[in-house]
Model the fold of this input.
Amino acid sequence: MSSPLRILQIAPRLPWPLSIGGNIGIFNITRALSRLGHEITFVCFATDTSDPSPMSTFCDVRIVRHDTSTRALSLFTNLFSTWPYTISKYRCAAMHDTLRKLCRERSFDVVHVDHIHMAPYGVMLKEEFGLPLIIREHNFETTIYERFALQQTFPPLAWYMHMQTRRLLRFETRHVLQADVVAAITDEDAARIRQAAVVRHMEIVPAGVDLDAHNPSDPSLEHSATITLLGSMAWEPNLDAVLWFVSQIWPRIAGQHTGARLIIAGAAPPRRIRELASERIEVRGFVEDLSGLLASSTVLAVPLRVGGGMRIKLLEYFARAKAVVSTSIGAEGNLGRDGAHLLIADDAEDFAAATLRLLHDPQLRRRLGAAARKLTEEVYSWEVIGRSFVQCYHNALGERR
Done:
C-alpha cells in the first residue's frame, strides 16, 4: 500500500445535502479517499446557513462565504466581459487568499479541483506553489452549453447561448491544458476534451454509487403503472427533460394506458412545473424519503435531451434494480446497454413505446433490474472509484517530476 497523500481538494460548493448528482459525486469521492487513509483539506464556497458537519467526518473543511447564484444584473453586465457567465460567478478574491494562506501553513502533495469552474484556483496553486494539478471534469461544460444553444428557438436566446458556448470552450480548453491530469467521467467527455485540447494526461474515472445505501427494493412495493421523473429543477437540463416528457411523451402513454400515473419529483420546481399537476400527474418537489418513492415506482424515466458527464441517479436506479427508460444523453457514459440493463429511446414516440412496454411486462422489468444491479456491483462502487483517483494523483506527481 502506498503512503497516505495530503490532498487539497477545491470544490464550487459544500456537497450537502446529497440531493443532486454533483453533491453525491464530490462527497463520495472525498469519503472514499478518507477511508483509504488519505488526508484531505476541503475548500469550497458556501452560504451562512450551510452545515459542514457531514463533510467534517472525512476531511478538514474550510468554507469561503460567497454567493454564486445567478442574478439578472450580472447576466446583463456579462455581455461586456470575456468571461463565460457560468465561470464568472465563481471569481472571488477571498478564495485566492484562503488557498494561499493554507499552502503557506501546510504541505500538500496534490491539488484536486472539482469542476472546471474552480480551475483558475488550481492553476494559481500550481504556478505559485508547484503543486501537481488534477482537474475532475464532472461534465465537459462546453457540451452542455452547445446542446442548449441548439435547442433554442428564440433568436436572441440562441445568440446568447452560442456566444456563451464560444467563451466557455476557450476557457475550458485553456485550463485543461494546464492540468497535469484531467479525470474525465466518461469516454464521450474524454473524446470531446481531446478534440478541444491536447491534454498532458487523461484518465477516465466514472461516477460511482453507494451500494449499501441503494439496495434492490421489493417488487411487491411497486404501485401499479407509476412512472417517476426525478431530478433537481434548479438544473436547467432536468427542467427541459420534464417539459419535453409532459408535452410530447406523456400524452402518448396516458392515451394507451388509462391506469398510468406520473410523479415529478425534485427540488425547486418553478411555477410552470407546479402547474403541470393534474388528476394523473403529481408534482412533489423535494422528497425526503427517496427510498420510498423509488421502491413504489414501476418505471423510472430519464428523458434528458441536454447534458454531459454521467448521471449518478441512473447508477442509483441500477443499484436498486429498477426498470429504466432513458435517452442516449441520459445514459451517456454508462456501461449499461440497451435491452440488457435498460431501454434507450431518443424520440417521443419511441420513448413512450419503451415506457409502455415496461409497464406491461413485469418479467422484462425484473430481468433488466437484476442485470443493472450486477453491473453496479462489478464496476461502480465508490471504493473502486477512490482507488482510481489515487492512481490519478500518482500520475500527476509523476508528470510534475
Notes: The first strand starts at residue 6 and ends at 11. The chain has a mean pLDDT of 93.
